[in-house]
Design brief:
By secondary structure, chain A is an alpha+beta fold. Chain A has helices at 16-23, 29-32, 44-56, 94-104, 111-131, 163-180, 246-253, 288-291, 300-307, 324-328, 338-350, 367-380, 388-414, 469-489, 503-521, 528-542, 549-569, 581-605, 629-632, and strands at residues 36-40, 59-63, 81-82, 156-157, 184-187, 190-198, 201-209, 215-219, 222-225, 258-259, 264-270, 293-297, 321-322, 362-365, 423-432, 435-436, 449-451, 634-639, 648-653. The model of chain A has no long low-confidence stretch (mean pLDDT 96). The N and C termini of chain B lie far apart (66 Å). Classes of the chains: A alpha+beta (667), B alpha+beta (249). The structure holds flavin-adenine dinucleotide, iron/sulfur cluster and FE2/S2 (inorganic) cluster (FES).
Chain lengths: 667, 249
């Protein structure tokens, strides 16, 4: 028997959440005060959860490794947040958002969770507006929307190219208010290094004060992990430099199963790698695919000339351009989901049509959009005979208004002006659909330990749609956990404060200190980054956009060797009792070196292609991904064993009661 | 290209600190400034030296964590960019570059180039929010906001809390940062109910944190990577006057 109980409520999918809320156990206000909750992470998921739980009366402690909760990587989200408001009257509904998300996820997500997400999506927008989040508006003063990949309606709310920033600052302001009221105690520049499990329940954490190096014990009745995604296992990704898997991985080692670790999202529109010094990759928002057209030359000789710097994009005649997404997927064109767009770019570049020196780039072109918008403006202003220059100038202004900050960013990084020459883009690791396995209540397999936001595996299946992570993070924090956590804590009202002077805390603290002491005393010869870069290369080459059995088996061996070398040869300068960024990195890379192996094992087991997971052995004749529903319609949930190779796979079968499972097509 | 670097080294808050010389070769113009420091740190680690500590995270100009004073200017020589967005093509072979932390009374140094900016958080905690508990919000479109106000509020809200304004100001004043938040909320109907208390409390906290007074030099606006406008300071002054008069009663 499987150890997994997803606790999905009975009833039809559209009634489950309402019924659940009607019957869930409650904790009365007086009792809430004596209950402590630890929230690790202050991104959208963590800030919204910490603020909401504190408002309800719980005593909250929140942690982040940056110098302020406002700097969590949610801040970097650009494009927008989905919600089924149907403000555009274009046929959107809760059901359609639910359907699009299940389909977008290639039928590898739980219906019940996704429906709940779609149900609460509209409340998120209301809540954010009430907080003063300055979303884009039209001239009537009402909220504006844009469209995003994988959908045919306009349901994405946005604040220029800084949606994540504005949403996070909204949640941060709510959190700040609770900090001022004394309901949340905030620990900046603190890193959680272990979960403490007492009597089978999560009862606290061990954290390191990153300024003083002090190791601290914190106890609570429940622990929420809102620590973000693990894309940095690839070294190069669009994640922040500090994004890591440590919090989730430590919980995994203490008994939390890891769900679908191999499901990684490779985002199609990022700025290509420029050299060995590269420390991270920068995303160009997917919203650019709304108006930009993606192409490579039709003729090999043109591509080669561009690669050698002998021709520019604009030298290629219209007829000699291959708008390959519009060609292959006429119904969705440039707006196909991310996994499809990324693979199509790789396919063209692998075939030799790439458009920069490394051959690893395609064009994202705004010339047509600038002209189109220019003509609309000319009409608006009743200009009868506008010159092409006038049209371009007006068109540029419109594009600037919509995407100005993204264009500026591109120019700063590459030194090229995207208003004049097409941008060059290439796919990059961006998001991890996998994460800690959670049940309907967002609880991991450790009772009392929850995972929210990108840190959990839920809702996005094998591929996440654009603008849905912000939605999920805030749904989890504002509207799900405040209900579901009561169901657990209702049994804890008489427990009293959890002591930290117990053997469980002693043991966890000792393990943390031992590892730190090992690092600062090891007389190795190579820096942490040296190992991280090598791990990243293995992962990208063999567990990246396309995977096969042979490569994955090699990757597993290579990672094991690398890990051994790491523990022998890593050099960490400085001491444990000071601000020591290299020491922080060492702990994170140690965990990535274990996670990487598990990701490859998971990818190896899943002998099908679905969403972001493309097994070369499983494709159609046209090279499209081929799912295998008979054998793989399940969530994989891995149980830790001291040697990663012994981890045990548990399967949560996915049942589709509402939506008919069909092959995903965007043609 | 080859560069000479003069970098501030300070072991901890109590240490006096000093400038130390380094040189670095084979710097590519496509590198970002922080990637150049990564390469230097890698070399220091391989030599058994202590690498240079500096704050950074997103490396795309939005988290506000990076904070270097380069050749006497916050975030370096270019306008409208953060340190992490600065690329080495802005320098040339043989240049000498001075790299220092933010210097302000309210931002003590933690180590080398990293400073403590938690004073900013405390100013926000004093009132930089709308008191709207989760749940119970009305439909978002029940509250139309004229586009002009919405756009201005957004422009003010794009402040990343980096502190370049404070580091640039000869008085170490935080007026630009504080006024950006006050303005955002003063421009929106949601912020009106608490406007008076907000500005009084935030200004009081700003003073308590040891930020200096504003003497209208305007250097902050020039060095702000997000182009936060001085208009916000004027708006905050008006809000403050109004609130002070009303609260005298
Ligand atoms: C460049 C970029 C653009 C994106 N654009 C969009 C978009 O337009 N729309 C969309 O829907 N999604 C977008 N996404 C995805 C989305 O932003 C993220 O999935 C989401 O914000 C994650 O939120 P989170 O709260 O789960 O985690 P994060 O925001 O990553 O927060 C993690 C938090 O955990 C803390 N933390 C981590 N580990 C520890 C530890 N060990 N101890 C203490 N604290 C710890 C960190 O300090 C931080 O506070 C984008 C992502 C990127 C990278
Ligand atoms: S006002 Fe500008 S310089 Fe000051 S903190 Fe905000 S973004 Fe930085
Ligand atoms: S590192 Fe985030 S703004 Fe520079």
């Amino acid at each position: 028997m499987s150890k997994l109980n997803s606790k999905i409520p009975e009833g039809s999918v559209d009634k489950k959440w309402t019924d659940y809320k009607n019957h869930v156990k409650l904790v009365n206000p007086a009792n809430k005060r004596s209950i402590d909750i630890i929230v690790v992470g202050t991104g959208l998921a963590g800030s919204s959860a910490a603020a909401s739980l504190a408002e309800m009366g719980y005593s909250v402690k929140a942690f982040c490794f940056q110098d302020s909760p406002r700097r969590a990587h949610s801040i970097a989200a650009q494009g927008g947040i989905n919600a089924a408001k149907n403000y555009q009257n274009d046929g959107d509904s809760t059901y359609r958002l639910f359907y699009d998300t299940i389909k977008g996820g290639d039928y590898r997500a739980r219906e019940a969770n996704v429906h709940r997400l779609a149900e609460v999506s509209a409340n998120i927008i209301d809540q954010c507006v009430a907080q003063g989040v300055p979303f884009a508006r039209d001239y009537g003063g009402l909220l504006d929307n844009r469209s995003f990949g994988g959908t045919q309606v306009q349901r994405t709310f946005y604040a220029a190219g800084q949606t994540g920033q504005q949403l996070l600052l909204g949640a941060y302001s709510a959190l700040s208010r609770q900090i001022a009221l004394g309901k949340v105690k905030m620990y900046n520049r603190h890193e959680m290094l272990d979960v403490v499990v007492v009597g089978g329940k999560a009862r606290g954490i061990i954290a390191r004060n990153l300024v003083t190096g002090e190791i601290e014990r914190h106890s609570a009745h429940a622990v929420l992990l809102c620590s973000g995604g693990y894309g940095n296992v690839f070294f190069l990704s669009t994640n922040a430099m500090g994004s890591n898997v440590t919090a989730a991985w430590k919980a995994h080692k203490r008994g939390a199963f890891f769900g679908n670790p191999c499901f990684t999202q490779i985002h199609p529109t990022c700025i290509p790698v420029s050299g060995d010094h590269q420390s991270k990759l920068t995303l160009m928002s997917e919203s650019l695919r709304n108006d930009g057209r993606i192409w490579v030359p039709k003729k090999k000789e043109d591509a080669v000339a561009i690669q050698q710097g002998k021709k520019l994009g604009k030298d290629i005649a219209e007829d000699d351009r291959d708008y390959y997404l519009e060609r292959r997927y006429p119904a969705f064109g440039n707006l196909v989901p991310r996994d499809v767009a990324s693979r199509a770019a790789k396919e063209r570049c692998d075939a030799g049509f790439g458009v920069n020196a490394t051959g690893q780039a395609v064009f994202l072109d705004y010339a047509a959009a600038i002209e189109r918008y220019g003509k609309i403006e000319a009409n608006k202003h009743n200009m009868t005979n506008p010159t092409p220059e006038q049209i371009r100038a007006m068109g540029k202004d419109v594009v600037k208004e919509k995407y100005g900050n993204l264009f500026d960013m591109y120019k700063q990084i590459t030194g090229e002006d995207p208003y004049e020459t097409p941008m060059k883009i290439y796919p990059a690791v961006h998001y991890t659909m996998g994460g800690l396995w959670v049940d309907y209540e967002l609880m991991t397999t450790i009772p009392g330990c929850y995972a929210l936001g990108e840190a959990n595996f839920s809702d996005h299946g094998a591929n996440r749609l654009g603008a849905s992570a912000l939605m999920q993070g805030l749904a989890d924090g504002y509207f799900v956990i405040p209900y579901t956590i009561g169901n657990y804590l209702a049994d804890d009202i008489r427990t009293g404060k959890i002591p930290t002077n117990t053997p469980e805390f002693d043991a966890a603290e000792k393990a943390v200190k031992d590892q730190i002491n090992f690092f600062v005393n090891n007389k190795g010869t190579k820096s942490v980054d040296y190992f991280h870069k090598r791990l990243g290369k293995i992962m990208w080459d063999k567990c990246g956009m396309a995977r096969n059995e042979k490569g994955l088996k090699e990757a597993i061996q290579e990672i094991r060797q690398l890990r051994e070398e790491f523990w022998k040869e890593v050099r960490v300068p400085g001491s444990n009792d000071e601000f020591n960024p290299e020491l922080e990195k060492a702990g994170r890379v140690a965990d990535f070196l274990e996670l990487g192996e598990l990701m490859c094992m998971d990818a190896l087991t899943r002998e099908e292609s679905c969403g972001g997971h493309f097994r070369e052995e499983s494709q159609t004749e046209e090279g499209e991904a081929k799912r295998d529903d008979n054998r793989f319609s399940f969530v994989s949930a891995w149980e830790y064993k001291p040697d990663i190779k012994d981890e045990v796979l548990h399967k949560e079968e996915l049942k589709f009661e509402e939506i008919k499972v069909v092959a995903r097509s965007y043609k | 290209m080859k560069l000479n670097l003069k970098i501030w080294r300070q072991k901890n808050r109590e240490d006096k600190g000093k400038m130390v010389d380094y040189s670095i070769d084979h710097v590519s113009p496509d590198m970002s400034f922080l990637e150049m420091l990564d390469v230097l740190n890698e070399q220091l680690i391989n030599k058994g030296d202590d690498p240079i500590a500096f704050d950074h995270d997103c490396r795309e100009g939005i988290c506000g964590m990076c904070s270097l004073f380069i050749n006497g200017r916050a975030h370096g020589p270019n306008y409208g960019v953060t340190t992490c967005q600065l690329h080495m093509r802005s320098f040339k072979d043989g240049d000498t570059i001075f790299i220092e932390p933010w210097r302000a009374q309210a931002f003590p140094v933690i180590k080398d180039l990293a400073v403590d900016r938690s004073a900013f958080d405390r100013v926000i905690q004093a009132g930089g929010y709308v008191s709207a508990n989760t749940g119970g919000a009305q439909d978002a479109n029940c509250l139309p906001v004229p586009k002009e106000n919405a756009d201005k509020a957004f422009a003010a809200a794009t402040c990343i809390g980096c502190g370049a304004c404070v580091a640039t100001c000869k008085n170490g004043s935080a007026m630009l940062f504080v006024s950006a938040k006050v303005s955002q909320l003063a421009l929106l109907p949601q912020g009106k109910a608490e406007a008076q208390q907000r500005v009084l409390n935030m200004v009081a906290q700003m003073d308590a944190e040891g930020f200096g007074n504003c003497s209208n030099t305007g250097a902050c606006e020039i060095e702000c990577p997000k182009g936060i406008s001085l208009e916000n300071i004027a708006r905050m002054n008006r809000e403050f006057m109004k609130a002070s008069i009303l609260s005298e009663k």
